[in-house]
């Protein structure tokens, strides 16, 4: 005959075993979670220094960052961030004049062009496009410049960006500044 205390102890062990097993499953699923903070902030005089001098401390999203399936909308966001960071590098490295207003103008052009290309890519899929892509003109840029995850382009502590190939397709137009 089994005592009441022994039976209670058996139930406690069974409960803890099941609880720990569920906890383990939650932990194993976490690496597949993809997070791409989006959208990037509009370049301004206030965040330009961080854009130009702290770029290697902001995340990049190589193909290996994403799971093989089920994250295409995050992949497009990551591609837009990678493209923008590459183009920022061009603006900050001297392709634009050394004058800060020229560098800012270049960075703003890069921002608009990268997000425009993102919207084209969003509409080329069978999924719903990102909300801001539905707007046009200034309304689109205002939408993209709201609810920003990193408005100051602050670096991620302890992070160094992996090498991501330079993105072609951006030409700075000095005549629009």
**In which range does the helix fraction lie?**
40-55%
Poorly predicted ranges: 6-30
Largest sheet: none
- Tally of contiguous helical segments: 5
- Indicate the structural class: mainly alpha
| Amino-to-carboxy terminus distance | 89 Å
Strand content: under 5%
What coarse outline follows from CA principal-axis ratios? globular
Q: Evaluate the radius of gyration.
A: 23 Å
What is the average per-residue confidence, as pLDDT, rounded to a whole number?
83
Q: Secondary-structure element order, as H and E?
A: HHHHH
Give the total of beta strands. 0
What keyword list fits this structure?
5 helices; mainly alpha; 177 residues
Topology readout:
Layout: H1 4-29, H2 48-53, H3 72-95, H4 100-123, H5 138-144
Helix pairs in contact: 3-4
Brief description of this entry?
The chain is mainly alpha-helical and 177 residues long.
Descriptive overview:
The protein has 177 residues and is mostly helical. The protein contains five helices and no strands. Helix 3 (72-95) runs antiparallel to helix 4. The radius of gyration is 23 Å and the shape is globular.
